[in-house]
């Protein structure tokens, strides 16, 4: 016997003791990214860089020494560009982030508060490519200098909700080869890897804050 019951503005279809809940709320659905400030600056030619080709592929040819760049100005712009999925914007943003993190040293930690909104915006696109690119950037970020990982801990509540949603999204390829794992494009694996990096570099308060936002996470520091 089938019947429909309405409660609290939600409709449930029942058959005997079976209850079918409401449809999915679209937590995994992609959100179209808004035009980035990074793209606007790039199109105006305001970045001191150009695209260079060599035997290993594309790379950024910087017109100034990276160490002399204004990190408060440029690093948030490159993180803002992580939302991009179209060449050359995607390439310049992604590579620019890693180049600046590699050479930033003590300049990075003071810029952390300015990076949170761009990071959150990138993750909130729910775009698989963007999420993977951002996770790799986050891993590099927390390992880029002293105290950077600890400085990020107060912002876990803004960053980790999306990671909690996608944490268990792994591709089950059976006996086949999961090529996404070879390219580090498996979101579930990358999220687990990123949370472990957060715990290792985030200091004594990292684990409890990760656990609060991602309840299924288990410490990687327990022997």
Automatic annotation (TrEMBL):
One GO cellular component term: neuron projection
Molecular function, one GO term: Hsp70 protein binding
SUPFAM superfamilies linked to this entry: ARM repeat
InterPro entries according to UniProt: ARM-type_fold (IPR016024), Parkin_co-regulated_protein (IPR019399)
Protein name, per record: Parkin coregulated gene protein
Gene (name only): pacrg
């Amino acid at each position: 016997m089938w019947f429909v019951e309405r409660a609290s503005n939600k409709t449930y279809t029942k058959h005997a003791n079976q209850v079918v809940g409401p449809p999915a709320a679209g937590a995994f659905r992609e959100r179209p990214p808004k035009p980035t400030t990074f793209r606007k600056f790039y199109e105006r030619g305001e970045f001191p860089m150009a695209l260079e080709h060599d035997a290993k592929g594309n790379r950024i040819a910087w017109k100034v020494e990276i160490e002399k760049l204004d990190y408060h100005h440029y690093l948030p712009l490159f993180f803002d560009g992580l939302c991009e999925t179209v060449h050359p914007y995607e390439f310049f943003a992604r590579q620019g982030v890693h180049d600046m993190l590699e050479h930033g040293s003590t300049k990075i930690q003071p810029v952390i508060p300015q990076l949170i909104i761009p990071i959150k915006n990138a993750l909130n696109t729910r775009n698989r490519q963007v999420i993977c690119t951002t996770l790799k950037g986050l891993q590099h970020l927390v390992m880029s200098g002293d105290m950077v990982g600890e400085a990020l801990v107060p912002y876990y509540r803004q960053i980790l909700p999306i990671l909690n949603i996608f944490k268990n999204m792994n591709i089950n390829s059976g006996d086949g080869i999961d090529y996404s794992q070879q390219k580090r494009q498996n979101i579930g694996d990358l999220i687990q890897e990123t949370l472990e990096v957060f715990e290792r570099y985030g200091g004594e308060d990292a684990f409890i804050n990760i656990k609060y936002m991602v309840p299924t996470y288990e410490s990687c520091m327990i022997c």
